[in-house]
Design brief:
This protein has 94 residues and is mainly alpha-helical. The chain has 3 helices and no strands. The radius of gyration is 27 Å and the shape is extended.
């Protein structure tokens, strides 16, 4: 009896899932909804499509990689303040 109840419940679940799946309309271009025609939207579209990407492979030298890694490591030596002062933007206390 328990097997029959499970089978009936599974069948109902599958039918309801199929019915719900058929009521959802997919986005016109896959998962991404069309964005409004804003400058930011256009820049994001250019980035997403990648057709404006450079054909030149960009590489960095070992020295550049070392400097980049050192800068990243140095960023951990500065503590993040609990609060930021209003109006203190752009000022550095060194």
């Amino acid at each position: 009896m328990a097997i029959v109840n499970r089978s009936v419940l599974l069948a109902l679940l599958l039918v309801s899932t199929h019915a719900v799946a058929n009521t959802i309309t997919p986005a016109p271009h896959g998962l991404v909804e069309p964005s409004p025609a804003t400058q930011t939207g256009r820049w994001l579209q250019v980035q997403r499509e990648g057709n404006q990407a450079s054909q030149h492979i960009q590489v960095s030298t070992a020295a550049e990689q070392e400097l980049s890694s050192q800068r990243w490591l140095d960023s951990y030596s500065h503590s993040i303040p609990d609060l930021y002062e209003q109006g203190a933007e752009g000022k550095a206390d060194n």
